[in-house]
Amino acid sequence: MSRPAAAPTSRPEPPAGAIVLAAIFVASLATAQLTAAKVLAFDLPVSIPLAGAELALPGAALAYALTFLASDCYTELYGKRAAQVLVNAAFAINFLVLALVWSTILAPAADPAFAATFAEVLGASTNIVAGSLLAYVVSQNYDVLVFQAIKERTDGKYLWLRNIASTGTSQLLDTVIFVGIAFWAMPTVLGIGPRLPTAAVVSLMVGQYVLKLAIAVLDTPFVYLITGAIRRSETRPA
User: Fold this and answer.
1) What share of the chain is helix, strand, coil (3-state, %, to 5)?
2) Phi then psi dihedrals of residue 137, to 5 deg
3) Could you give the domains of the chain?
4) pLDDT tens sequence across 12-36
5) DSSP 104-167
6) Facing residues of 39 across strands?
């Protein structure tokens, strides 16, 4: 006698907040990859030690800062393990973005002149890619671990503290690795990319970190708003 067919098991739908935060994280990360090559410069009203009166930073700074905002919200709401899966899955997506961009660059072009400009703008150099990928995978995983560790040691209190402390220190790690690899280590050791003078490398690190630290402080109210809104929406009766 045949057994009755087993009823299909229904899987719970993923939380809408998790989908939105993951989408923001991946979109910001992909944008950062495509805008990292442009160096921005901002004049300051005062001179900063080691950096001077001008902040120099990659065009990806704002997009990359959004990834830390999204990952902190994700860790707060869904835990360390889920955030680590997001961070490392997005790391793999980095290679997909690079593959798609380079497949377009290498494909036959109807307008060779425009194709050259396209490749120059979107074809990030090896030193930039290597520095960016290494900085990302180290700093983002560090951010998740520190955020969760502070949360556990403070019994879930002081969201502002774990946001600023985790993002502030991970952004420092990210800045040192990215600038050090892209503009000093790769050019010096492998002869890939322009090697900047040591003073310029230090200035670039300081300039980037000042802005990233400011963003880490300023995004704290948004972490409260986002996590609060998602918690309310996910606990509301269906």
Assistant:
1) 75, 5, 20
2) -65, -30
3) 16-43+53-231 (1.10.1760)
4) 677 889 999 999 999 999 888 888 7
5) HHHS--S-HHHHHHHHHHHS--HHHHHHHHHHHHHHHHHHHHHHHHHHHHTTT--HHHHHHHHH
6) 58
